[in-house]
Design goal:
Pathway: Cofactor biosynthesis; biotin biosynthesis; 7,8-diaminononanoate from 8-amino-7-oxononanoate (SAM route): step 1/1. Pyridoxal 5'-phosphate binds at residues 141-142, 284, 347-348. The chain is α/β, with parallel strands linked by helices. 35% of the residues lie in helices and 18% in strands. The chain has helices spanning 19-25, 28-35, 79-82, 91-101, 115-127, 141-158, 179-183, 223-240, 265-277, 329-336, 353-368, 371-386, 415-423, 446-463; strands at residues 2-3, 53-58, 61-65, 71-76, 132-138, 166-170, 203-205, 212-213, 219-220, 244-249, 253-254, 260-261, 280-284, 308-311, 323-328, 395-401, 404-409, 427-428, 435-438. Strand 3 (61-65) and strand 4 (71-76) form a beta hairpin. Helix 5 (115-127) packs parallel to helix 11. It is globular, with a radius of gyration of 23 Å.
């Protein structure tokens, strides 16, 4: 629904309440005007396209205002970059935040502990693949990857192999924007060229063979292609093992590197090869964890466990920034018995009580709401509603995995035009490269998912044909 009147009442206000008059005096266009040239937005220049101002949010919907004053009531097809799985203004998460704020909002984690952190760690260990038994609470996904890489290097040094300081990663991968995390992102599509001499040189394998869901709901790929990739894995590790600390991958689904699903057998092979050569296996489940791919953790598609695992994004249900690094007892024991005895990292906001309390409530809600049924419903809805896009001339491929739907074009997306066309169809999307994709909140209704699919398909048809 598009609200064309700049003076329309913001949802949640009532005529004559006083709030309505205040909102009219300070419209969203003022926020956008003040933003321009002041705030940098992700991967955007200061003088780039004007952002939309968010005036309210609830459930799966956002109320937006454009720079010209036009207002939109839209379904958020992005879950605020894949994190807001339970929707906005969720009463359970609101209450968890309020309750903890009435006790204390933050304390340092050095020398102190508190119930929210302990309870969250217990939940994570219970839910995570065995044998992950120990938890480091970080303050963002990128930081959790930095910690994981540090941990792998410390482990190798503690076990008598201090020369093992590099990593084997995948082409097409994305692990964050800080320096160590950047170094294991795709070396071409990542940001290596912007920081020559500063980003560490790592080893890279080709992107694994693409996989698709079969009629039994399993991810399958071309057997010959998988065999060829595994051969390349074995050869690379045999040649480079003396300098490698770990293999790091996004299991089964590469997110920001292309929304690309690949064969689970590649993970099983990585586990075997890592064990054979004394490498650790690191799974970055920041985007894939907590049910997004149809399994609680994407590692379950392959039936293997990593030595170290990073989680984030949906961890707090999108409310606050928080991530975690989990590791096995073997890894933790080696570091504990090493020269330094500690994992050498300690953010100021490590174990923030507000974030931990909300994350704990989010994990409770995940189970209480039946995430498997929720994600299954979203998957079926996306498969049905995005299917018509495959007939468009500009569309190369449509693919769906869990609560992830992707329409890949045969050309780069005209992002401003397609964003606007989707808004006109009451859907908020944020395309990139040649991809128009959606990761809806798990609480999206069948009608919400159908609207997302129809909005994406219609917007592509309008802009790209």
């Amino acid at each position: 629904m598009v609200l064309h009147s700049p003076a329309a009442v913001v949802p949640g206000t009532a005529p004559g309440s006083g709030t309505e008059t205040t909102r009219r005096r300070t419209p969203g266009t003022g926020t956008i005007r003040r933003d321009r040239g002041l705030l940098w937005h992700p991967y955007a220049p200061l003088d780039g396209p004007a952002p939309f101002a968010v005036e309210a949010a609830g459930g799966v919907r956002l109320q937006l205002r454009a720079a010209d004053g036009e207002r939109f009531d839209v379904v958020d097809a992005m879950s605020s970059w894949w994190s807001m799985i339970h929707g906005y203004r969720n009463p359970v998460l609101d209450e968890a935040l309020r309750h903890q704020s009435e006790r204390f909002s933050h304390v340092m984690f050095g020398g102190l502990t508190h119930e929210p952190a302990v309870r969250l760690a217990e939940q994570l260990v219970r839910l995570a693949p065995q044998p992950l038994e120990h938890v480091f609470l970080a303050d963002s996904g990128s930081v959790s990857v930095e910690v994981a890489l540090k941990l792998a290097v410390q482990y190798q040094a503690a076990t008598g192999r201090p020369e093992r300081q590099r990593f084997l990663a995948l082409r097409g991968g994305y692990h964050g924007d800080t320096f160590a995390a950047m170094s294991v992102c795709d070396p071409v599509d990542g940001m290596h060229s912007a920081f020559p001499g500063l980003v560490a040189q790592q080893e890279f394998l080709p992107r694994p063979p693409a996989a698709r869901l079969d009629n039994d709901g399993e991810l399958v790929a071309d057997a010959a292609a998988v065999a060829g990739w595994i051969a390349a894995l074995k050869e690379t590790v045999a040649r480079q093992a003396g300098g490698l600390a770990a293999i790091i991958v996004e299991p089964v689904l590469q997110g920001a590197g292309g929304m690309f699903a690949y064969a689970p057998e590649c993970l099983r092979a990585a586990r075997r090869v890592a064990d054979e050569h004394g490498l650790l296996l690191v799974f970055d489940e920041i985007a894939t964890g907590f049910g997004r791919t149809g399994r609680l953790f994407a590692a379950e598609w392959a039936g293997v466990s990593p030595d170290i695992m990073c989680v984030g994004k949906a961890l707090t249900g999108g409310y606050l920034t928080l991530a975690a690094v989990l590791c096995s007892a073997e890894v933790a024991s080696a570091v504990t018995n090493s020269e330094f005895r500690a994992l050498l990292h300690g953010p100021t906001f490590m174990g923030n009580p507000l974030a931990c309390a909300v994350a704990s409530a989010s994990l409770d809600l995940l189970e209480a709401n039946g995430w498997r049924q929720q994600v299954g419903g979203v998957e079926r809805g996306l498969a049905a509603s995005l299917a018509p896009a495959a007939a468009l001339g500009s569309v190369r491929e449509v693919r769906v995995l869990g609560a992830v739907g992707v329409v890949q074009l045969d050309r780069p997306v005209d992002i401003p035009a397609l964003t606007r066309a989707a808004l006109d169809r009451s859907v908020w999307v944020r395309p990139f490269r040649d991809l128009v994709y959606t990761m809806p909140p798990y609480v999206s209704s069948a009608a919400d998912v159908a609207a997302i699919g129809a909005g994406i398909t219609g917007a592509i048809a309008e802009v790209h044909g």
